[in-house]
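Our preliminary data section would be incomplete without showing what the modeling component actually yields. Below, a chain of 386 amino acids is followed by its predicted structure, encoded as tokens that our downstream tools consume directly.
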Amino acid sequence: MSPPETLYNASPIVDSPKRSIPTVARAALVVGLLYLFLVGIKLLESGVKGLGSDTAGGLFEGITNPLAALFVGILATVLVQSSSVTTATIVGLVATGVLPIEVAVPMIMGANIGTSVTNTIVSLAHARKTEEFRLAFSAATMHDFFNLIAVAILLPLELATGFLQSTAAWLAELLPGGSDATFDSPIKGAVKWGASLVQQVIERIVDPGTALGVTFIVVGISIIFFSLAFVTKNMRVLIAARLERSVNAALARSGLVGIAVGIIITVAVQSSSITTSILVPIVASGILLVRNAYPITLGANIGTTVTAIIAALATGAVSGMTIALVHVLFNVTAILILYPWTKIRYVPVTLAEKLAGVAVQRRWVAVAYTVIVFIVIPLAGIVILT
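Predicted structure:
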């Protein structure tokens, strides 16, 4: 069993500080690299979405088995690279009566699992450096394990009692119906703008179709790898040891701080994938401890539910609001079950660290894990159960 991380000491990754670049310039460089990193993620999402949009749309049709619905939620989210898109689509289908709420509930849970694939893919960019990769893969997969454990506990309970649906229905009746509310994050808009510029250049060179989607994916991954190679190095130099200790100490004292930070950031950028993906290089650089990044990830799970709430408000349908509130209740309940109790709080982190230890010794394990958990098992489950 790997030794537990200390709450205040930084990770063993330490570079000799190089002060040749002024602090302000280095800070600007880090911001620019993070922006480039997010543009790369957006390109990756666009490429995957372009290849899988038709498949994702067809996945929702004719599903009645709850386990099949769970797998559909996972695979659809992987295909469109956004749980916000999946949950908003589910809200719309429920609101129009196309999709029964009973089937939509496990789909929402599956979307929670599927959204964690992005940060897991991002962690693979650190595979060349052993210690960075161990930290990055731990930071990414703790999100996977938390969501998997949450579904393993709450899906059987929901199927047996329907408590999430009934509670959400009660709350939905209390809320005012109908709204034209919309929300568009400035950060998300800026990233979309940058990605669209790159896409326009690519579209002039590559013909529309599968080749265009593949090119978006290749360019997106290349940008992610390039930006991560420099952002972690500059972050280590930029963040002084004293500030590093202060941040970790604040998060260690109260997990509520980290959860609040995760909620705020995710609401601001309208994407839990962005929040959790940014955490990966920060943890890999040794600035933030894995266990202190954990509550931020949990907060991101709650923050991402805002999109479904907004979509439900726009539909004006009680059924749409009900399934949106199921998403909120699922994530809040999962945190209340797992996080307050010291003995089980860090089970997802421990599992992630053990898997990362194996992946460090055998890099192929990380790739196999990602493909099997997010593609092979959901796809096989859908084929068998439908």
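The chain has one domain: 23-385. The CA atoms of residues 56 and 76 lie 5 Å apart. Preliminary results of this kind motivate Aim 1 of the renewal.
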